[in-house]
Amino acid sequence: xxxxxxxxxxxxxxxxxxxxxxxxxxxxxxxxxxxxxxxxxxxxxxxxxxxxxxxxxxxxxxxxxxxxxxxxxxxxxxxxxxxxxxxxxxxxxxxxxxxxxxxxxxxxxxxxxxxxxxxxxxxxxxxxxxxxxxxxxxxxxxxxxxxxxxxxxxxxxxxxxxxxxxxxxxxxxxxxxxxxxxxxxxxxxxxxxxxxxxxxxxxxxxxxxxxxxxxxxxxxxxxxxxxxxx
Length: 230
Description:
- Helix content is 22%, strand content 27%.
- The chain contains three helices and ten strands.
- It has helices at 26-42, 113-130, 203-218, and strands at 14-23, 48-54, 58-61, 81-83, 90-93, 97-103, 144-146, 149-159, 162-170, 220-224.
- It is globular.
C-alpha cells in the first residue's frame, strides 16, 4: 500500500492555498507565478500559495546561468528554452517530474534565503522518508540526493520577501532530456528519479505526500484552490 500522508504538524498552522494542477506549459505557469507575486507585493495580507504541477519538456536557465552547461545551441533548436529570474544554472522539466512553486511571504516565517532553501530541501527529504528513502544534502550544493543520484533540484527568486519558482522532484520522468545539459552545472553526480528506487511510483501517489510534508515543515494548513483565471 502506498502512503498518502505524513503525521500532523506540531506547529501552529496558518492557511495556505494549494493549487494541484496537471501538465501546464512553462510560460503559462510563469505568468501565473508573476501575477501572484505582484498581487502579494501590493497586498501582503493575501494568503500564501503552493502550486504543484508538471511541465511539457522544457529547459530553463537562471538569470545568471552560463551557456557552457548547455550542450546545444539554444538559439537554433526545437527545444523550448526559457531564461528566467531564478537563481542557479540550467535544468530540465518534463512530464513525470513534480514541480512545486511556493508563493510565500517570508515575513511570516524567516527573512533568510538560506533558511528557506534548507526548508525546501527538508520538505523533500521528509517526503522521501515516507517511502523509506534517505534523502541527502551535499555541503555547498542545493538539492536532494538519493544514493548519490540527484532526484530534486531547487531554484528560487525572492522579491520583497515574496518567493517564486521552487523545486522539481524527479518522480517517474524520462531522464533522456538531462543528457543535453549539465544539470545545475553539477557534473560530479548523475541525475536520478524515484522510480529507480520505488517501482510503480507516480505523481498521483507523490503529490499528497509532498503537500503534507510542505504543510508540516512550514506549519501551514493547505486549502484546495482552483487554477487562477487569466
